[in-house]
Amino acid sequence: MMGSSFEIDETMNKEELFKLLGAVAAFASVTFLIDEYMISIIPKYRIPVLNDILVFFEILSVSVICTILLCIILGIAFWKKNEERWLPFLFLSIGLSAVVAIGIQHLFARPRPEDIGLVGVTLRLWRYSFPSGHTAVAFSAVPILLKVLPKFKLLWFGFATTVAISRVYLGAHYISDVIFGAIIGYLIGMSMLNYEVAVKDREVRRQLFHAAMGVFLVISIYRGFFDQIGSYPPLSSLYFIPATSRTILSILMIGAVLIYTSMKMDIPIISWFLDHFERPRLREDFPGKGCFFFFVGAFIISLIFDNSIVAASLLILAIGDSTSHLIGARFGKIKHPFSRDKNIEGNIAGALLSGLLVSIILHPVIAFTTSFIVMFVEGIYFTGIFEKLNEDNLTIPILSAVLIFILDHLIAI
Question: What is the chain's alpha carbon radius of gyration, rounded to the nearest angstrom?
Fold first, then answer.
């Protein structure tokens, strides 16, 4: 089953789906009024055995090893069904739902039940309460899993629902947090099921892959993973440059070898990615050009700025630039005043989404100001020598980093 037939048969048509989600959202809005009361009475009905099971479930849910094993199992299952093309969209759906949930959490900054003394939990909680990130991630995977492995639909919904219930039961979230988390996650997962757009349109695939790769790079830098890798031999011998820069440089060197080799011969796995995500005109001349310059830009700013500025700049590139292209191409009506093919709607959407997510890292004023300026400049059409030098994956992070640095010092003054 493909495309719209799946959506009608296995779930429901779009109109019915949005009506249902609207009704759920309306109900969730009402739960705001009873959130504190409901969360305060839950401890009276807790069962010791269930407590231990759900705490263990919580530990597994944030375990890196368990996450890797789950990805391998799902990868094998998708491959056996000849549906491996959906794997990037599954992982992108999960990653995007996580960053969107975190972004909204920082926007609303709602204290968790534990923070205001309603419950006492032993979990290591961080960030804010609304919406539930765990629930958003769990439900974001459901639509794609239903498409590829529909026989296990009770398992997928059961798992996601268990995650949601456990968040309330353990006192980590209010009821409204998990309901809105489920809505956000499911909508993101559903957006990946547009077969004509997500699978047949190479440019859409390329932008989604671009966003997923960027988010992975941002998390790796911001959480210090690249710092750790760069501190080990033989990279540690390059002591005269920052540890993060060493790691990015090593990736660049490996990438350069793969690009050169791909121009001469097909490399297993790499060729599959190029066939599915690279622009045809670059497939032979410069395969992987976008990824290469993405890391070049990351390397340059990592030499000069601290990791928070680097992560924020790359997030604007990954999310802002991709969103601008996708929204502008599908919904753009107002032409950018200095562009031949860009639209204002795309620039605004890219600026809003990237600004929201960058607010996780930086002051919201800096995040949104930088995002709007960069997205407007990104839409400008250059001519002559400037056209050749205007590689978005290189210029956007550099411009973003410089603007963030200047705005940060202006606000400090």
Answer: 22
Q: Among 112, 122, 107, which residue's Cα sits nearest to residue 177?
A: 112
User: pLDDT of 284-333, one tens digit each?
Assistant: 778 888 888 899 999 999 999 999 999 999 999 888 888 887 777 666 67
DSSP 8-state code for residue 343: B
Specify the residue for token string 């992560």: 311
Please answer whether residues 357 and 103 qualify as being in contact, where contact means their C-beta atoms are separated by less than 8 angstroms: yes
Rounded CA-CA distance 295/30 in Å is 46
Cα dist from 379 to 313, 335, 373, whole Å: 17, 10, 10
Contacts of 98 (CB under 8 A, 6+ apart): 133, 136, 137
Query: Cα–Cα distance between 293 and 288 in angstroms, integer?
Result: 9
Give Dmax (Cα) for the chain: 72
| Separation of alpha carbons 252 and 105, rounded Å | 34
**Residue pair 305/222 in contact by the 8 Å Cβ criterion:** no
pLDDT tens readout for residues 14-55: 556 556 666 666 666 666 677 777 777 777 777 777 777 777
DSSP 95: H
Distance spanning both ends of the chain, measured CA to CA:
60
Closest alpha carbon to 307 in 229, 224, 369, 412: 224
Calpha distance 300→306 (Å, rounded): 12
- On the 0-12 / 13-18 / 19+ scale of CB atoms within 10 A, 5 is exposed
- State the amino acid at position 30 in one-letter form: V
Ordered by where they begin, the domains of the chain are: 3-197 (1.20.144), 201-412 (no CATH)
The one-letter amino acid at 288: G
Q: What are phi and psi of 42, to 5 degrees?
A: -60, -40
Each residue's pLDDT tens digit, 356-391: 778 778 888 898 999 999 988 877 766 555 455 557
- Report the distance separating Cα 349 and Cα 324, nearest Å: 6
